[in-house]
Amino acid sequence: MIERAVHTHIITSRHGVPLMLEGADGLIVEVTDGAFHGYRGQLFYDLCKTSVIRLAYAMATELREHPITALALTPGFLRSEAVLDHFGVSEDNWRDAIAADAHFAESETPWLVGRAVVALATDPDVHTRAGRAWSAWDLSRHYGFTDIDGRQPHWDDHLDRAIDKILDGGTPSEDDKLLLSVRLHQLDFDTGRAEQRARVDALLKSQDGALRVDPDED
Description:
There is one protein chain. It is built from eight helices and three strands; from the N terminus they run αβαβααβαααα. It is mainly alpha-helical and 218 residues long. It folds into two domains: 2-74 and 108-153, NAD(P)-binding Rossmann-like Domain (Rossmann fold, 3-Layer(aba) Sandwich); 156-206, no CATH class. The protein has a three-stranded parallel sheet with strand order 1-2-3, with helices on both faces. The chain starts with a helix and ends in a 12-residue tail after the last helix.
């Protein structure tokens, strides 16, 4: 994972940036998973996805005297070809899979993150976003673009609503406990959601045999 998800990014930038320095300006987009600073469920996966965010920050710092912007970008629940295959659906009937996973209703096609890149590349003030991680859903609202079906899925808002519904219910199912446990670690270092994190932690601790994420267990 480190070779394919981090080393490849470094090699690409090592050969691409010198060419970009010869031009008038440039944009480097590091695609990651999640714009948060918490844990992503498995050590090496977490290390790789966090590393490319850091890579964007480090390049932005080193290139600050040049007209090149480096940043990180995350999609939401990506409705890729592999995900469609996993659910046994196609893009034409993807909604049929919502019955198997209600969160799939807020999924997005790869076009959304692609359109986010276009919006960034055509923004004359994109340099103000250098060094940070952004989401396709927030950029969609900011720039006004949509997915190919005209929707503006917002994964973070959806997840917040789902978590709040579980918290308000008070008696989480095993699937709910899994989602709460995942969210608990995602919210590490997120001071803006400290209250939600505290509620999640309290509910999990109140449950006998509450499920916590263990990367060594399937």
